[in-house]
Each structure stands twice: as C-alpha cells, then as structure tokens.
Amino acid sequence: MRRSNIGWLFLAPATLILFVVGFIPFLYILYVGFFDWNSNAVDPTLRWAGLQNYRNLVFDATFLNSLARTLVFAFIVVVSELLLGYVLARALMADRLWGRQFFRTIHTLPIVVAPIAVGATWRLLCVPGFGIIPYYLKLWFGIDYNISTNAYHAFGTAIVMDLWHWTPFVTLSLMAGLTALPKEPLEQAQIDGGNKLQIFWYVIVPMLKPVLLTTVFIRLMDALRSVDEVWMLTKGGPAEATRFIGLHIWINVFPKTDYGYGAAMSLLTLYVTIVLSWLLFVAMTGRKGGAQ
Amino acid sequence: MATIELDKVDKHYGAYHALRDISFDIADGEFVVLVGPSGCGKSTLLRTLAGLEDITGGTIRLGGQRVDNIAAKDRDVAMVFQNYALYPHMTVRENMAFALKLRGDTLPDRNAKVDKAAEMLRLTPYLDRYPKALSGGQRQRVAMGRAMVRSPKAFFFDEPLSNLDAALRVDMRSEIKALHQRLGATSVYVTHDQIEAMTMADRIVVLRDGKVEQIGAPLELYDRPANIFVAGFIGSPAMNKLSVKIDLKSNAARLADGSSFSLPPGTRARDGQDAIYGIRPDHWILSRGDQGAPATVELIEPTGAEILVAAQLAGQRVLCAFRERHALKAGDTIALAVDPATAHVFDKQTEQRISP
C-alpha cells in the first residue's frame, strides 16, 4: 500500500502539469465552442450559441478547403520524408561513405533551427525579385518562379521547406531503428535466398514497424499543425493556397478575435486528427483499436 | 547434398589475419565439426562457407562449383544460428516456409514440406505461434526445421546449442545427430565445446588462431593428438602435461625429482631433449609397491563413476581419474605408474608429437 502511494507521489508533478496545461484548456475550448464570442463585436460577451458554430463549420468552404489542403500537404510530406529519410539513413550508415561522421552531424542541423527562422530563411531565399531561388530558376531553366502569385509554386515551396526541415528527423529516427535491428534475421534472409528488395520488404519493414509507426505519427501530427513556417513564408497565400488549418484557426482566433468559432474549428480538427491517426494505426498494424 | 572443398582459404580484417591458409575437403553427407577456443576463427570460417563473409584468398567449392565469388543467397545452403535468428514477425509456419516462398514454391507445396518437417521435429502444435511464445528448445527446432524444408546442398550450424540449458543441450545434441543420420546431409557444425565435437562429428577440425591444428575422426584426435594444443583441447578432464627431459640411455622421460616414466616405443627423440609427457587422467595406474613415481594427494573429488585425484608429482600438479574406489585421503603418498603405450610425447619447442 505504501509502495503504491509513493508511486502516485512521484507521478503527481507530471499529472498536475498535464492537467493544468492539457486537460483544463481542452475543457475550456470545449466550453467556448458552444458560444458566440468575439471581443471586437458590438456585444463582446459570451453569447450561448449551442451547436451553431459546428453547424456553420460544416458549410464553411474556406475551413473545409483548408482542412483538405492540410491533409494533402501532410500526406505528401510524410510519404516523401519517409522515403527520403530511409534512403538517407541507409546512405549515412554505409561503411564506404567517406566523411560519414561529418555528414551525420551536419544533416541534423535543420532540426535545431526554430520553425520561425526556417520560414524567414526560406522567405529570403524565395522572395520574388530578391531571393536566389527565383533568380537561378529564371537564369538556368527560364522558369518564372513566384511564390507570391503562383499558388502551385507557393504550395510546392511549403512542401520543400518542410522536407528540408524535417527529413533529418526521419533519417535520425530510422537510423536508430535500423541500428537496433538484430543482425541475424537479416543474414538468415540472405541465406534463405532473399534478394535486397525481398529482404527489405519481408524482413526489414516488418521489423522496423514500431519505429516507422512512431515516426509517421510524430511527423503526421506535426505536419497537420504546421503554422509558423508557412506564416513566415507566404502568410497563407497567395489567396489561400498555403493556408493550412493551423494557420486558418490562428487567423480566426487572433486577428479576427472570433474565439467561439475558432474553438469549434480546433475541436473539429482535433477530431479529424484522431480519426485519421486511428485509421492509420489500424492500417499499419492490422489491429482494430485498443492500442497495445 | 554436396561435397565442400576449401583450398588455401585466407581472410583478413584489415591488418588482422583471421583465417590462414585453410585447406580441407568435406565428403558428401559428412558431419564435420569445427572446434577451437574463442577467437580461433571457427565462426568466421563457417560464415565464409555460407557467404556471409568474403574471403581474401583461396577458393571454396560447393558440389564441385566454385562459390567464393557468389552471394549467400545463390549458394543454396542453410544455416542455424546460435540465437536462432527467427523472424520475430512471422509465425513458426511462415518462418519455416520463408525460403520456399522466396524461391517460388506453390502454397500447397510449401505447406506439405513444412508439415512434414514440423512433424519430424514435434513442432506441429506450435505452427501458428510467434517465436516469442516458444521456449529456447522449440525455437532451436524451428531454426532447424527452416533449414530442413529447403533440402539445401549443405547445413551450417553456428554454435546452435550454446543458448540452451545443459539438459536440453544433451537432448538436442542427439536430436541433431539423429536428424543427420536420417537426412544424410553434408553438415558443418561450429562449437567451442569439445564434448559436442567428440559426440557428433564424423571428423573434427581443430582450429587455433585461424590455422588448422589437426583434422581427424574424434577418437583419432583423442588417441593421437598431433600437438600439445590438440592434446589439451580434446578430452575432459584435460590431459596431464608433464615437463620432462629425455633420457635415451634408459629410454625414459625423466622428471625434475629424478623419477621417470618409460617412453612409448618408437619415440623419435634426442638425448637430453626437453619434452612434454602427456598422460590422460584415466591412464594413470595407481601402483602398489615401489614401482612408479611418488606423488602427494592434494584433493579428492568423487564423481560417482570415478574418483578424481589431484596430486603433486615432482613439483607439478597432475590429475588422475580412477574407476576403482581407492581409500585415499589428502596428504597420502601414492605411486603413479603409466603404461607407455598410452602416453603421448611432444617436443617442448615445436609442440609437435614425437611419439608414434
């Protein structure tokens, strides 16, 4: 009995922090979501709105487009980062690679740069009439690259920026996973007659699954709430071409001070994220819910 | 099934010379055990045979075909690893059928072969389990089943019993031997345990520092070890190695205290040569009367089948194993004699055998 009390005591600080910064704000958002509340409105107090916010959301094309755009963005970056990250991980683990330690060190540098700085840097690289990327694309390939006017260029640049920033994280995590794999099953697979592709698909991928799953979840959730980098790069534009859901919510809650509606958006987005993660989990593990 | 021929096989890891000029042939269906202390190169040699390591010189032939330049996957050999190396994400059945699946066997074909092997290895009730739900012995049998279903050219075992407890090891030892007799497959088996080597092998290859020390049938190695290393390595408890001087006038090996043992007939020795006189513990004769060299009993260990007696003989410790239940106690003086025919004499310098 005393033992378990001590256990709770040790857990208490973490539980308390989680409760204060996680659970209370969640309840607060849930509460605010039922009200019409805009501090710049004629009546800046909370007015009961019931489910009206949610009803509006379902018909809000800007919100739904933003959500769909975010899902496309997240899908593209997560898949690309996985593929790229795996290739890089294998390359950085190769014995033959000259200067391996050096490359291993510098390839992780983007991870430590703050998103806001990444966005600012890429803005400087890409800004029309000033950045070196539009300049050389024009000079060498004759491409009129302009993230301020071309929606595809802006969206593409947001993707490339995310790849630059977060692929090293995937590489690191896969490298850790690959290093920890037991060597013998891989050797056994060679003796069993497997070629490189078969060994990769039938042995490495299944054994790497826990690491893959963790990495995908971390990256997916990050990608779904990408705000500051895109804000620095394009401010969500041109038009709404790069207005991802996090940014959309932020614009509604802060500049527009539409708290009630923003809260409802946040909750719906959370709901979508949870469902998506659950579907992904089932797809990747073959288990139905009840995560172990 | 196939023969294996090694010709001047060499292996370097950078400056480290792991295998030195290894040449021997393995007959079709033979069970050869590679044995030696840790770091002698026995596992490396097996891995080069399997294709998991390259060699830096020489050739390896499998069934007459040169294989040292082809990949492991194309050699058609099976291997059983010390820690079983089962695929953790596959059931027993999938583990056993994996190689068959890779080479494109049909599902009914695969199932038939797996079922047959599983029955032979008493694994049928476990076919749908994952490796983590099996005991060590069962995992070991799955690893063997996985090798069996393929009917490969050769079986390679890399210390397959080292992770099992003593009782299970003895069981599995006879099980592997029985399987080999049944399948008649060419097998190479690596172990550091000389009992395993003795009991299982048709022929034993003793390795030290990447070199072959001796190749021969188990009893040949036991009865006529080619050098001091093999003499000490094969046999348990180990052979007694007494430092002696050869006295050709009286045809004897003389100990420091002046007592002596007769040389085996036909020993090629010089007078006054420094030599090692080797006697297996069970070859000592406890002599009554004044024959034999006097020794002082230090320790007595009855094992049931025999009595192990540690004694001091001319300043050297010797171990004797007597089947008779002599009434001895520590401090007794005994006289030890030897039948020269059972003794082994080695040159102290070259460590090579000089008795016939």
From TrEMBL, chain A:
CDD domains: TM_PBP2. Residues 67-280 form the ABC transmembrane type-1 domain. InterPro entries: MetI-like, MetI-like_sf, UgpAE/MalFG_permease. The keyword Lyase does not apply. Its main location: membrane. Coiled coil: none annotated. GO terms for cellular component: plasma membrane. It comes from Xaviernesmea rhizosphaerae. GO terms for biological process: transmembrane transport. Keywords: Cell membrane, Membrane, Transmembrane, Transmembrane helix, Transport. This is ABC transporter substrate-binding protein. The chain crosses the membrane at residues 7-31, 67-89, 109-137, 157-178, 199-221, 259-283.
UniProtKB/TrEMBL annotation, chain B:
GO terms for molecular function: ABC-type transporter activity; ATP binding; ATP hydrolysis activity. InterPro entries: AAA+_ATPase, ABC_transporter-like_ATP-bd, ABC_transporter-like_CS, ABC_transpr_MalK-like, ABC_transpr_MalK/UgpC-like, Mo/tungstate-bd_C_term_dom, NA-bd_OB-fold, P-loop_NTPase. One of its GO terms (biological process) is carbohydrate transport. Pfam families: ABC_tran, TOBE_2. Transmembrane segments: none annotated. Keywords: ATP-binding, Cell inner membrane, Cell membrane, Membrane, Nucleotide-binding, Transport. CDD domains: ABC_MalK_N. Its main location: membrane. NCBIfam families: PRK11650.1 (NF008653). Belongs to the ABC transporter superfamily. This is Sugar ABC transporter ATP-binding protein. It comes from Xaviernesmea rhizosphaerae.
